[in-house]
Amino acid sequence: MTATSFPPMISGCFITLLIWAGCSTVVCLVNEKITAPPATPTGYFSTVTEVATCGNNSDTCGIYCRICDTHYHGPTMDCLSTLLQIQCITKFYDAMASLNSTEWCTWSNVGGLYSNLSLCTEEISDCLMIPWPNPLVEQTFVEIHSSHFKDCPSQELSDPPPVIVFALVMTPICLIPVMVSLVVLKTKNGDGRP
């Protein structure tokens, strides 16, 4: 191999690698409405140059992918938003409505519902090959927190009662004159005795 043929060979391999890596990602389908070719029975396309539209071959993922293909021409954020609303958020709101609003702030009452919501959003995002968490899922959780958990006290971050704060502030302030007077008395007697 000569020195003049080495750089073109490396750049050819590098370009081939870039093309292969670029064709195997799904990021391009997230915000675009691209119609992908039909999937193989495994849920992925048969060649490396085609992009997968469905996360796996489970029945649930197949249903989600068919809905997206039929109504949105592929897995888009609009399709994800609709599926999250139908499959996850509505169920969470219904379950929260069955609880008394005073029970919303007790984690043992809502922890399971919250975990189910999180798992549901993750499952649908994975099925559509959309990264999780994503801005849509984050916005969903922000809205849920602002509508259901905004009035819940946070014991770890709350201030102590005003009486305690006053005592903690005033104690050092009152001790300063006492300490100064003790120092003055001790230094007045040269040997340190009263």
TrEMBL record:
> How is the protein disposed in the membrane?
Single-pass type I membrane protein
Chief location: membrane
Concerning InterPro entries, the annotation shows: RAMP, RAMP_sf
Record-level Gene Ontology MF annotations? coreceptor activity
| Keywords recorded for this protein, A-Z | Cell membrane, Disulfide bond, Membrane, Receptor, Signal, Transmembrane, Transmembrane helix, Transport
Query: Any signal peptide, and if so, which residues?
Result: 1-25
Cellular component annotations (GO), alphabetically ordered:
cell surface; plasma membrane; receptor complex
Tell me, what is an example of a GO biological process annotation in this record? Answer: intracellular protein transport
Enumerate the Pfam families for this protein.
RAMP
Chain segments annotated as transmembrane: 163-185
The compartments listed are: Cell membrane
The family this protein is said to belong to: Belongs to the RAMP family.
Name of the protein: Receptor (G protein-coupled) activity modifying protein 2
Organism in which the protein naturally occurs: Gasterosteus aculeatus aculeatus (three-spined stickleback)
Q: What is the lineage of its organism?
A: Eukaryota, Metazoa, Chordata, Craniata, Vertebrata
